[in-house]
Design goal:
The complex is a heterodimer of chains A (384) and B (329). Chain A is of the alpha/beta class and 384 residues long. Chain A has twelve helices and 15 strands. Chain B has 329 residues and is α/β, with parallel strands linked by helices. Chain B folds into two domains: 2-142 and 184-286, 3-Layer(aba) Sandwich (Rossmann fold); 292-329, no CATH class. Classes of the chains: A alpha/beta (384), B alpha/beta (329). Chain A: Residues 337-371 form the B box-type domain.
């Protein structure tokens, strides 16, 4: 994605002496001067017809039926070098705090929409690479690990090569039924070390790079070696959030080999007596509600997870149904002249739309709810 | 706090239920409950009690068949009985046409059996309409409606991640935070299903569940099953729907438990209480919620299955070719 460089892109890396006085644990709502992204305008006057039409235009077009990597494996690489803790005008108060908060919100949405997925977090500081969290689908575990990161850890320089080496060491151990994805948050304006042969090891991945400070030619060039790939340069916190939302949809992958993956569908049981169960945090806990592995009857406190005894992946069958939104999304509705009331709510609004499949008319409010939340068209669900 | 409740009443299996109705030796009706004779009068009592308990409340009644979804009642306008009877007549006539078209497989002295007339195919469309209606009502009272609720909790302070349960609980907590910040209306949906589950709409109903969950809308369910067979399955779709949204699921134990005031008692004692007050009462607790998968090939319920990594179809055995997307493994 080609983004014009802002005027502050040429400044030198701050040495961190002006660093903020918080460790990124609490993000305060600070006023952001650069509100130049159109999405903000779409929500300022919510009921205005122009804002309604602008929001509708932001919806993605009708998605083609194409092979996607539904069971996702994502590696999040974080740059925790000194420049991340420096004050930032476009990602206030600093890049570390902004990325951490945005990532927390994004992880919730991601695992909500892609529950059959696993995420690992790797960070780099002091020219080294550390695996913060191994591949897991447990949201509490990931958020717990992420909350342990402090701004005081932003020191030294980022070793991108070491982080990519860690990823390339894990990839051969994967089962091969998903396309490995890398999401890199890089705060510097140049890469200190060459990538060398690591580039060859990540060719069969999906690379998504967020250059937080400015566009870097070497990183953009890296994304041309992988497919699919994305290169983002966020201009504000809102822009970063909206760009991350693009990654919620499973990536397309025509070369992915079809496989049958074994899953267990345990039953939720409620017991008046607390039972000792395994949990993703590692320590066993006593709970009244638990899931029993259908293979070995080991008790687990939450799913999705992997059985500690037989390594069967345990998942809720309702979680699988979330994936169908990406496979069979509802089409975008077409705007029409207001003539008949909305089929769903009975209101006649200034902006009315119609579903071209079933011919039902809806108002803009129901259109937004159906496309953003429900992913259902009530007219299409009825028999003709 | 003001309340809204949207009732989704399924009319799809009325013909089948009328055929199964029986009377005892003393001439008393033994069930199952019929819509116009038992369910509507019970709902009227329930809605009167709801309005009395919540002065600033709003209710609406949506009826759904396999081909149509229509709002037949709301606060201030009452219940349109003519519209309900029209929908029932249409549905019964359609059921007769379906039965005439179905091949006769039983002896001539026995009634024809067509499974379609006992299946509720309009539930997912009804619940979708209910969520849209709630959003429309909230939008008038709270600009932004459901979107405003979600946006509030997206921008809310979420620095502390420790102690979080799972993603579902966090979303629900966040929507409760948004509620307390906005002093918004507590919304509920009550689904009354009179037929059997329609499994092809499972994903659609789960989409409704997730949407309701993220917006803090609680979905309760009442299953009025048809036959006298005590082994008739509990609706797995409804029990999952209520589990996800934190609602109550109940099924009267016998057809006789749906008539002669029993249904009214159930509605008043189980479903009248709002969600925030349920913590201090002893609500109905479902001991087990079944999350078993169903094989796309055989329709059997399975504990362990094989999932295609491209289309997420579930099978009970490892196939060489996925039957849904045609991919060769």
């Amino acid at each position: 994605m080609s983004v014009p460089l802002p005027s502050w892109a040429s400044k030198q890396v701050v040495d961190g002496s002006e660093g903020g006085n918080n460790d990124g644990g609490d993000i305060l709502d600070v006023s952001i001067d650069r509100k130049d992204y159109s999405e903000t305008a779409a929500f300022q006057n919510y009921d205005d017809a122009a804002a309604i039409r602008l929001r509708r235009s932001l919806h993605p077009p009708n998605l083609p039926s194409i092979r996607r990597s539904m069971i996702r494996t994502v590696f999040i690489l974080l740059d925790l070098s000194q420049c991340m803790s420096a004050p930032s005008t476009h990602l206030a108060p600093n890049m570390f705090a902004t990325v951490k908060l945005t990532l927390i919100n994004w992880l919730r949405d991601f695992l909500n929409l892609n529950p059959c997925s696993s995420i690992a977090i790797i960070y780099s500081n002091n020219s080294g690479s550390t695996l913060l969290s191994d591949l897991t689908s447990s949201l509490p575990l990931l958020l717990n690990k992420l909350s342990t990161l402090k701004q005081s850890q932003c020191e030294g320089s980022c070793n991108l090569r070491a982080m990519l080496s860690t990823v390339s060491g894990i990839i051969p151990c994967l089962n091969g039924y998903s396309l490995p994805e890398i999401v890199l948050f890089y705060g510097g304006i140049h890469i200190q070390q060459g990538l060398g042969k690591v580039q060859d090891n990540i060719v069969n991945t999906s690379l998504n790079i967020f250059s937080l400070e400015s566009e870097i030619y070497a990183l953009r060039n890296l994304t041309t070696m992988t497919n699919p790939s994305n290169y983002f340069v966020p201009m504000s916190r809102t822009h970063l959030s909206s760009q991350l939302k693009n990654l919620l949809l499973p990536p397309t992958c025509s070369t992915l080999k079809p496989q049958m993956v074994e899953y267990g569908f345990p039953t939720l049981k409620n017991s008046p007596c607390p039972q000792l169960t395994h949990s993703d945090t590692g320590a066993p806990t006593f709970t009244n509600s638990f899931f029993s592995c259908p293979k070995c009857s080991t008790l687990t406190s939450s799913i999705p997870s992997t059985c500690k005894t037989c390594s069967l992946v345990l998942i809720n069958v309702t979680d699988l149904s979330k994936g169908y939104r990406s496979i069979h999304p509802i089409n975008q509705f077409k705007e029409i002249k207001p003539s008949t009331p909305c089929t769903a709510c009975g209101e006649l609004e200034e902006v009315m739309v119609t579903c071209e499949k079933c011919g039902s008319d809806f108002c803009w409010m129901c259109d937004e709810v159906m496309h953003d939340y429900l992913h259902n068209c009530p007219g299409c669900l009825l028999e003709k | 706090m003001s309340q809204t409740i949207t009732i989704v009443l399924d009319l799809a299996a009325e013909a089948h239920r009328a055929r199964l109705s029986t009377v005892d030796s003393k001439g008393r009706f033994k069930g199952p409950a019929l819509i116009h004779l038992h369910v509507i009068p019970s709902l009227k009592v329930f809605l009167n009690a709801f309005e009395a308990a919540n002065p600033s409340s709003y209710w609406s009644l949506i009826c759904c068949t396999n081909t149509k979804v229509e709002t037949v009642g709301r606060t201030g306008e009452g219940i349109d009985l003519d519209a309900i009877m029209r929908m029932l007549d249409d549905r019964v006539k359609k059921a007769e046409v379906e039965e005439d078209a179905a091949p006769t497989t039983l002896a001539s002295s026995e009634p024809k059996a067509n499974p379609n007339i006992s299946i509720s195919k309009g539930i997912s469309a009804g619940v979708t309409t209910a969520v849209c209606r709630i959003n429309s009502y909230l939008n008038k009272n709270l600009p932004g409606g459901l979107a405003n609720r979600k946006r509030k909790h997206e921008t809310a302070l979420s620095a502390s991640a420790s102690g979080a349960d799972d993603g579902f609980t966090n979303l629900h907590k966040n929507s409760d935070e948004a509620k307390s910040q906005n002093n918004v209306i507590e919304s509920r949906i009550l689904v009354i299903q009179t037929g059997e589950d329609w499994m092809p709409h499972y994903n659609n109903l789960m989409n409704c569940a997730f949407a309701a969950k993220s917006a803090g809308v609680c979905v309760d369910a009442l299953q009025l099953f048809c036959s006298s067979d005590k082994n008739e399955e509990r609706s797995s779709m409804l029990s999952q729907l209520t589990h996800i949204t934190g609602g109550l699921f109940m099924r009267p134990p016998t057809p006789a438990g749906q008539v002669h005031g029993a249904l009214t008692q159930i509605l008043l004692t189980v479903y009248l209480v709002n969600k925030s007050s349920r913590n201090v009462l002893s609500p109905v607790v479902v001991e087990t919620v079944e999350f078993k998968g169903r094989c796309y090939e055989t329709g059997n319920k399975i504990d362990i299955g094989f999932v295609c990594n491209l289309c997420l179809s579930v099978f009970e055995r490892k196939l060489d070719t996925c039957l849904t997307c045609g991919s060769k493994v």
